[in-house]
Design goal:
The complex is a heterodimer of chains A (130) and B (818). With 130 residues, chain A is mainly alpha-helical. Chain A has helices at 11-16, 19-23, 31-46, 66-77, 79-88, 120-124, and strands spanning 54-55, 62-63. Chain A has a two-stranded antiparallel sheet with strand order 1-2. In chain A, a hairpin with a 6-residue loop joins β1 (54-55) and β2. By secondary structure, chain B is of the alpha+beta class. In chain B, α10 (600-624) runs antiparallel to α11. The longest helix of chain B has 25 residues, at 283-307. The chains are: A mainly alpha (130), B alpha+beta (818).
């Protein structure tokens, strides 16, 4: 079977869905802190608490869902996959805490370029402006 | 009823079944009415319709075979029914499994004093979705309100981990069952268990050990009496069955004694003369005749370890599961070869049930059922892990009624009185979060209290909750990749193997043909498949969504968008939904398929076809001197003999043998595919070279630094896969390279114009020619105006209308989407 390639998703989505940002943690978080935070967020989402419904990322606020949190926890349990996400979570999400909310689209189409709140974020990661 | 939660786990085995109860501190095995912890998975139905289960039924297995059934687990999820002649009835495998579960449920009731309403049931690691669904259905028929399934190796490791002292390390679960061998690599860190990898041999199990000993006995008979008993002769079938049972008993006896007697009189007859068997079997003999089988299992273990960069001696512990693992020689050899100690004091026969009961705590499946809400207090909605490896987890709560929240403070206290939380104020949503303090490896009961602003106590409902501290496992991993088969025989992966459950994903697809309103002939199929291979026809069809002409509100043109959502719950139950935005309609009727029938004719035809493929592949492999392929073909050829024997037994009415043959043939088909991929290797290698050089040009010219870096990494991975001759990995890496290449190619100012011309040249074959022509005209105008965004949209719409090869579509389970 073919796996959905990470290259196929847009750079914006990659940053926005980074498990560390989803969980509201920095890349140096311990494994236990990840489990604790993930379980806490799942509980908050189950109770429909607004404070858990969105999270800041360097490319704007994003919607937090139960699926995203579960998937983030699973990604960070695997040491090799975690390493990859650590690299992409170097940017401080709070640097743009006031950025407009930007919700992930339902399918895998790239997010519209006009909605990018901080185009420099990509350049900072070595992405070429298109 | 117990004041604190109790958790029930059930190992629904092929030969025996077991139930266990976990109270948060220790696991207790449930004894049945005979006082045994193992209940034989055997059901008998008599002439009056009376059902007998377990040891009582097993007594009739030989004497009343027409009305007594065993080993039906292997038929779960198939349409096969099993007849009970005296009772003039027939039952589906899940109905018989339900009888076993009812019996175990009654035993648990005797043990606990109440009927459990929730439980966890174990299933083999590689059960397919229809088999899992059948297991859940059996549980529902047995009266359980809610069940979750757990993979057997995960359950074993969880049970072993619960009693382990060390918190970190790699574990190997060596599970040798009656017919299959499974090995799983697990990792524990900070009290959390993770499944790292799995391997196995579906043709290796305890029955192979029995067969090896039967062969030795027949050889001894020939040597000492000059009589040849042929296994192929149907006249000997009944006698050989008796010999096999006798040999099984001898094998068990030899786990304790150094020698055992084998006496069988009159069971076999050759040329009218009864064959008397009277032998003394030494343990050394058993060890000698089965040593090759043990070595085969060890090779699988080493292969799994190597795949994860580990060698023997680098694992912390080996957990043995299954009856055959009690053989002293096997234990000694496994210990020596893997260089790791066994888990102490672990019972290989009941470990799975024990683990299932512990997992029930992780999943919060209290056997007592839903707690009754006390209406007297204010309702508080609580979220906390029922089982936590963390000593300081959070509890989150929210007052959900319309009462006053201003100034209300919450306090939690552990019921031993040694820990109390500070007073916590409710936030503007009426919610609170408190960090708890747990005592290790036991159930921790917390009381929850609220006080109003003026210090008055407010009664809360519930007023207490329990968290068990101990090793836990994250969300259960999916055992096989699940996706949607596409019309070009490719697969769109929704959930990759290992994905945490529950899971839900949505992708947008496009129809490849139109569906006319009212037409009964138009049926758009969306096949859901399970498997690890890139081609849909090599994956197993496990369900299908169908959009028929009779159910659509309006005709649906080809190229229409369909949003497909697949959802899997923690037990692996699949649900699917297709939303057609153009119609505003949702289609949810999933045809849950059964495991395909194993008709003897189809099995025979498959065996013959495979023999033909082996012949062709062997000639090619000999010419290339491809030793690896030759070895693999020899293995397939040997296994094919067993499959052919099973197919023959299926013709005689043995449905179980038929299903075994079907599964064997599927596995062998996969192996032959690998050999064929090996044959096509030079072609793949040349494509890899071509793709890489094209990608280097485009990514070098139009790619960012990161993309160039990624290409470099992908090129290294391509090289590694090439060096290892790993076709699956090479194809995967080539997809990464192609994606990069496409992304960069599309940045060329003329790229969309080139792609437009290419698509426009095929417009006369489009599924909707009128629309295709309109799109071509729109595209030409966009080129004139240099409107690349519009052109891009036109090209993407045109692609959706291009035809799909009928042959590929047939292979892709007749999928109607791309």
């Amino acid at each position: 079977m073919t796996e959905a390639s990470p290259i196929g998703t847009s750079a914006i989505e990659r940053i926005r869905d980074n498990p560390f940002y989803v969980l509201g943690l920095r890349p140096d978080a311990t494994r236990q802190a990840i489990e604790r935070q993930g379980t806490k967020l799942l509980g908050m989402l189950e109770l429909k608490l607004k404070s858990a419904g969105a999270y800041p990322t360097p490319v704007g606020r994003a919607e937090r869902t139960v699926e995203k949190v579960r998937s983030a926890m699973a990604e960070l349990r695997d040491p090799s996959r975690r390493l990859e996400h650590e690299i992409w979570a170097r940017l401080d999400p709070e640097a743009l805490a006031d950025a407009p909310r930007d919700v992930t689209p339902v399918d895998d189409e790239p997010a519209p370029r006009a909605a990018d709140p901080w185009p420099e974020a990509l350049a900072a990661l070595g992405w070429r402006a298109v | 009823m117990s004041l604190r939660p109790l958790y029930v786990g059930i190992d629904l085995g092929t030969t025996n079944s077991t139930a266990a109860v976990f109270d948060g501190e220790k696991v207790t095995l449930v004894r049945n009415s005979q006082g045994a912890t193992l209940t034989p998975s055997v059901v008998r139905i008599d002439a009056r319709g009376g059902v007998t289960v377990g040891a009582k039924a097993r007594r009739f297995l030989e004497t009343d075979a027409d009305n007594t059934r065993s080993e039906f687990k292997r038929l779960m999820g198939t349409a096969q029914t099993l007849d009970f002649k005296a009772g003039k009835t027939s039952k589906r495998p899940e109905e018989l499994a339900a009888e076993i579960l009812k019996s175990l449920r009654a035993d648990v009731k005797e043990h606990l004093g109440f009927v459990p309403s929730r439980a966890v049931i174990s299933v083999p690691a590689l059960f397919e979705l229809p088999q899992s669904a059948a297991t859940s259905e059996a549980a529902r028929m047995a009266g359980f309100e809610k069940v979750e399934l757990i993979q057997e190796p995960v359950a074993s490791a969880l049970a072993a981990g619960w009693s382990a002292e060390e918190k970190t390390g790699s574990w190997l679960v060596y599970d040798l069952g009656g017919g299959t061998f499974d090995v799983s690599l697990l990792e524990t860190r900070d009290g959390l268990l993770r499944v790292v990898g799995h391997d196995g041999d579906n043709f290796l199990g305890g029955r192979d050990f029995d067969a090896a000993l039967v062969d030795w006995v027949l050889h001894e008979v020939e040597r000492t009496q000059g009589v040849t008993v042929s296994r192929a002769d149907p006249k000997h079938a009944a006698g050989l069955r008796k010999l096999k049972l006798a040999v099984e008993e001898v094998k068990i006896e030899l786990t304790r004694a150094t020698e055992a007697s084998l006496v069988l009189s009159g069971a076999l007859e050759v040329s009218g003369q009864a064959v008397e068997i009277d032998l003394v079997v030494e343990r050394a003999t058993l060890e000698a005749v089965t040593s090759a089988l043990v070595e085969r299992s060890i090779e699988v273990c080493k292969r799994l370890l190597a795949a994860h960069g580990l060698g023997p001696g680098q694992i912390g512990r080996v957990v043995l599961v299954g009856g055959p693992t009690v053989m002293p020689a096997l234990r000694a050899r496994v210990r020596e070869a893997l260089g790791a100690p066994f888990g102490e004091g672990l019972d290989p026969m009941t470990l799975v049930a024990q683990g299932a009961s512990i997992y029930a705590a992780t999943a919060g499946l209290d056997a007592r059922g839903e707690a009754k809400v006390d209406e007297s207090g204010r309702r508080v909605w609580l979220q906390y892990p029922a089982m936590s490896s963390d000593l300081t987890p959070h509890v989150i709560g929210r007052l959900v009624d319309a009462g006053q929240n201003q100034g209300v403070k919450i306090r939690l206290s552990r019921n031993d009185g040694l820990w109390t939380s500070p007073d916590v104020a409710l936030d503007e949503e009426g919610a609170f979060i408190v960090t708890l303090d747990l005592l290790p490896r036991r159930p921790n009961v917390f009381k929850i209290e609220a006080k109003s602003a003026d210090g008055k106590v407010i009664a809360l409902s519930p007023s207490a909750f329990t968290i068990v501290q101990g090793m836990t496992i994250g969300d259960p991993p999916l055992s096989r990749t699940v996706g949607v088969a596409l019309a070009d025989d490719a697969v769109r992966v929704y959930f990759a193997r290992g994905a945490p459950l529950p899971a839900k994903r949505t992708f947008v697809h496009h129809t490849v043909e139109s569906v006319s309103r009212g037409s009964t002939e138009c049926l758009l199929k969306i096949p859901i498949v399970q498997g690890e291979l890139a081609q849909a026809h090599l994956c197993r069809l496990v369900g299908s969504l169908e959009i028929g002409g009779a159910s659509v509100k309006a005709s649906l043109p080809a190229g229409s968008a369909v949003e497909i959502t697949l959802e899997l719950d923690r037990g692996g139950h699949l649900s699917a939904r297709a939303l057609v935005p153009a119609l505003g309609q949702i289609f949810e009727q999933v045809a849950h398929l059964l495991v395909p029938d194993a008709s003897p004719d189809a099995l025979d035809a498959t065996v013959t076809a495979m023999r033909g493929r082996i012949g062709e592949l062997r000639i090619d492999a000999m010419a290339r001197n491809a030793e690896r392929t030759i070895g693999r073909l020899t293995y397939v050829e040997c296994a094919l003999i067993d499959a052919a024997n099973d197919a023959e037994a299926a013709r005689g009415g043995d449905a179980d043998a038929g299903q075994k043959a079907r599964r064997t043939l599927l596995e062998l088909d996969g192996m032959l595919e690998e050999c064929e991929a090996d044959k096509r290797w030079p072609e793949l290698e040349s494509r890899a070279r071509r793709t890489l050089s094209e990608a280097t040009i485009w990514v070098g010219q139009y790619g960012s630094k990161s993309e160039q870096m990624l290409l470099e990494e992908a090129a290294q991975a391509v090289e590694k896969a090439r060096a290892e001759r790993n076709a699956v990995e090479l194809q995967r890496q080539l997809r990464v390279v192609t994606n990069l290449y496409n992304a960069c190619f599309q940045r060329h100012p003329e790229a969309w114009a080139w792609m437009f011309e290419d698509a426009a040249s095929e417009a006369d074959q489009a599924t909707d020619m009128v629309r295709a022509r309109t799109l071509v005209q729109t595209g030409r105008k966009a080129i004139e105006k240099n409107d690349m965004d519009a052109l891009r949209g036109v090209v993407q719409d045109l692609w959706k209308l291009l035809p799909v090869s009928a042959q590929k579509r047939r292979l892709g389970h007749d999928s109607g989407v791309r």
